[in-house]
Amino acid sequence: MAAVPGDATDEMLMVRYQRGERKAFVELVRRHNRPIYNFVLRQVRMPSLAEDVTQDVFMRVVQNAAEFKHEARFLTWLYTIARNLCIDQLRKLSHRRHASLDQPQRDQADQTDAQLLADTVGDPNPQASAERNALSSEVRSSIVKAVDSLPDDQREVFLLREVASLPFRDIAEITGVGENTVKSRMRYALDRLKDALCDFEEYARALR
Amino acid sequence: MWANTVDCEKFDRIVLDLLYEELDELTAAAAGRHMEHCTRCRAIGSGLRATREVGALPLLEPPERLELRILQAEERATQLLPIGKRLGRGLSLLAGYAMRPQVSMAALLMLMIGSSLFFLRAQPGDREHVLVTERGVPESDNEVVTVLPRKADAPEPARVAVHPPPSTRGEESGRRDRAAEAKPEAAPMAAAEQYAAAPPAGPARGAAALGASAEDKDLEGSESSSDSDASYDAAMAAYRDGRYSEAQRRFDEIASLGGPHAANAALYGAQALRRVSGCPTAAPRFEEVHSRYPGSVGSDAAWQAADCYRSLGDLARARQNYEQLSADPSYKTRAKEAIAELDQRVADQEAAARKAAAAAAATAVAAKAAKPAAPSAPAKPATSLK
Question: What is the mean pLDDT of residues A18-40?
Fold first, then answer.
């Protein structure tokens, strides 16, 4: 089996996987495992469930690999799958919350998230990582809370933009709305986040 | 320049693209210039940028076991993949190979070769395996190109006429004109453009003639042909001078040796023989020339033979020759006129014969009437009274 070069595009890797190169799939998992997991986690808010959903996302890729067209964009396809699975899980969760009192309360889940953040935080933007490492876990948990408090449609757009680093055009394709609508939702999300983080924003300005 | 001017309204539309660096350079520069002069827009831009920086969502590292779980699940799923999807994967694999440029170039090459083969003639006829060789004489003397037909059951190699070189052709034309003036009955020969018989296959004849005309240029100026020309000229001179016996001998020699003048020499030899010995001897010779050189020379010979038959009173054989010649386009009109003339002549002969027969019958009747009655048998003398 031929070695998979690191600079191969996702689409090339997918086409190779269609031809039976399993290493290409391994490379795809290594590239997108983390952002997919974070996108799913911020949607379903439960780490164990996020793992399962992330695994399901890649299994959908395996099962539907033959249907992938080489001219399509892999990331758009991947996050469309992830979004649909998240919607399914949230729908199931909403039924369970109504049916079970054993489910942990929202505050408890937030505390779990904050603890997780404090333990295993990563950074998509390495340039500012030095400064950001100085931020307290309190700031991080505030950010998570602010994001979780966003309406679903705004949070979805925010996560696709910030976590998946997808352009607005692709986000519009994934969510099935117009590009202007996507930008509008993103603007509302940033405004809400700004309101929630105004104290830390002052701190950020002081950092510059 | 106007398109890249940014005002507050436009800034509100593009501020997110500016924030996430999805603007082109010119518009981004215009937005930056606008922010320098507009306090409102500068505040908006700075606020969003600060929010994005502070509010950058920290990413969690997924558990290490997750990647392993995914890969194990993939392995299991691949083994349990339904046959349809496995086939789809195989098809994708084949399609991947088919989409390679090398395969495309190979397909294009095969298409070009295939189309070329399509336009090639599968059975081009007798010309496909034609062998053109020289026969009997050295190449320098050989103006007769022999075409060997492809089929083995062909009666004999067909012979295609080759036009003589332009210089000799002009002389030959002049000779033929002079011969036609000297002997008006040989007028059909003026149509003779070929020196030898044509092959049975028409297209091959044309193609060989084309090739032969190219050969003409190669043979031009050939000294080896001058000897046969001189012999032929001497024979023609004897013929024109009325020395028919000598002319016949010379023409026969030329015809027996073969070469470019053989056909005409044979015909003139037969004509000279007619002058010397008359039609009873010449008619078979004309027939021989006709059968040996089945071209325009042969047609001339057939015409001459028919003429001999007419003079000999053998109208049936003359008619037979004329009917053969009526199939030749150059003799068609004359042959039909000759046949009509023959028919008229036969009719006249029959009428004359009937008239003669009637006259003979009338003469016989008159003679019979004028002749005194034959004495009857003497009466038997009365028997004596007994």
Answer: 91
Which of A86, A103, A120 is the last residue before a domain boundary?
A103
Taking one residue from A and the other from B, the number of pairs with CB-CB distance under 8 angstroms is 149
Range of the domain at A207: 104-208
- Residue A3 sits in a domain whose CATH number is 1.10.1740.10
Interface pTM (ipTM) of the complex? 0.78
Question: What dihedral do alpha carbons A89, A93, A94, A98 form, nearest 10°?
Answer: 160
Q: Is residue A94 located within the same domain as residue A38?
A: yes
Q: Does B140 score more than 60 pLDDT?
A: no
Last residue in a domain, options A103, A127, A152: A103
Residues A43 and A71 in one domain: yes
Question: Is residue B306 predicted with pLDDT exceeding 80?
Answer: yes
Whether residue A51 and residue B63 make contact (CB cut-off 8 A), yes or no, is yes
Residue type, B303: W
> Could you please report the per-residue DSSP string of B243-298?
-HHHHHHHHHHHHHH-STTHHHHHHHHHHHHHHHH-HHHHHHHHHHHHHH-TTHHH
* Domains of chain A: total: 2
Return the pLDDT at B136: 52
Identity of residue A29: V
Judging contacts by C-beta atoms under 8 Å, the chain B residues touching residue A128 are 53, 56
For residue A161, the chain B residues in CB contact (below 8 A) are 20
Cα–Cα distance measured from residue A172 to residue A189, given in angstroms and rounded to the nearest whole number: 16
Whether residue B51 and residue A194 make contact (CB cut-off 8 A), yes or no, is yes
Judge whether A53 and A24 are in contact, CB under 8 Å.
Answer: no
- Same domain? For A71 and A160 the reply is no
Residues 6+ apart with CB under 8 A from A6: A27
The two tokens of residue B87 are 């086939």
Q: Are A168 and A179 in contact (CB under 8 A)?
A: yes
